[in-house]
Amino acid sequence: MSDRIPVEMFFLRDGEAGTLQARLAAAIVRAILETRARPGSRLPSSRGLAESLGLSRMTVTLVYQELVSQGYLETRPRSGIMVAATVPHRRLKVQKPLPRQTALDWNHWLADQQPRQRVIRKPANWQDFRYPFIYGQSDAALFDHNAWRDCARRAWGTRDFGELASDLYGADDPMLIDYIRSHSLPRRGIQAEPDEVLVTLGAQNALFITIELLARGDRLAVTEDPGYPDFAETLRRAHSPTTFLDVDEGGLNPELLPQGTRLVIVTPSHNIPTGATMPLARRRDLLTRAAAHDFLIVEDDYDFEMSYLAPPAPALKSLDRAGRVIYIGSFSKSLFPGLRIGYMVAPAPLIARARALRAIMLRHPPNHLQRITAYFLALGHYDAHIVRLRGALKRRRALMEEALAATPLRIAGAARSGGSSLWIEGPEGIDSGILASRLLEDSVLIEPGEVFFETPPSPCRFFRLGYSSIKDADIAPGIALIARRALELAAEPPV
Fold first, then answer.
1. Any idea what DSSP says for residue 372?
2. Kind of pairing, strands 296-300 and 325-330?
3. For residue 394, how many other CB atoms are within 10 A of its CB?
4. Which residues of 286-357 form beta strands (DSSP E)?
5. Domain named HTH gntR-type: which ranges (predicted)?
């Protein structure tokens, strides 16, 4: 007689995402695997399982049928529903654990791999905080989930599936490349051929590939201070000698570039974190110096779509006639950070090398994710999303400025064209790291400024306030809490 899986092994987990049928299917598969049920083990009848879980018999029947089609279950005449012979089993014989030997000296193996020194940290449960003034997170209420679902359905449909299920051997989705070339890049005044564009897993992946190909121990790199810490960390990993130039209200000043510069990494549209925008005259000066002194420029144009107060300044790449600018863009900031779809634009020889390097890292970004994004862009959903996003950010920017005006906190930097964060200077003598720690008690999140400096001031009273994901009504009370804690901290005697 065949074994029977006890009905007690089947249960729905509280808080589990998905439809009722999906949760029940997961519960049945979980019970099969956790009991190591053998092929032919009987499951409870649909009536018995329905009564045990308080579900309708029809729901159980439909899930049984679905799992039969997936090969987990099978039906036998007069025997009911059973575990199929094709179900993945974990039948390995349990062995006694081997005695643990002396641990390896990982410090020896990793001797030339230094740990990261500068990391922007954000709690994984940031959504549990009432006042999340953090940068780079999206507001789900602004996103058209139905449109994205429709695009996913198209990409997974019969017409597209055969094409996208193949290994593209390092190539990218031609539909997405076409949209980037015909729609995204022209908005920045950039023209590019198909062999001059590479899709990446976000801007970060594009940056890593670029520095891996171009940075050398004998090539001096220059970047901004304060600036995006991953620029510094990626250059450090490449053992690249690096000079950090102070940023003023016009961003990086080309007149301060040291002799022997070979690579310049900049965020000319919105400096990270100050929001400073490089004027057109400086952009032209930087390009002139690049040609005269034979260096290359990496332009991270990470959030040009967040321009709602004024049109964005021309991209450096749009002014480049000599092919010295490597342009990096991303949809992760404008859509949602978990998307991880970015791109780089550069002369064909560099893109060919970048494609080869990407191929040995990850072959290519997932085909279907590229196609879903392409549909979302091509069908007009992206443009509609950007309109909603700009409207919300413009409103929140005004609320932020109004709330801050009534406090001793000073806006030390803000993107003239818009953006989604403000660079704040607190009262003299406070440390923004300590301030951030104390604000956790008030359910407030801010980003301490120390991480953005190569050599931070001590104490560092600067911090960043993002407003892409906080509710409008929570801005003023959240700012008031920050100001109160900052004043309390400033009033304390120095340690």
1. H
2. parallel
3. 14
4. 296-300, 325-330, 342-345
5. 18-86
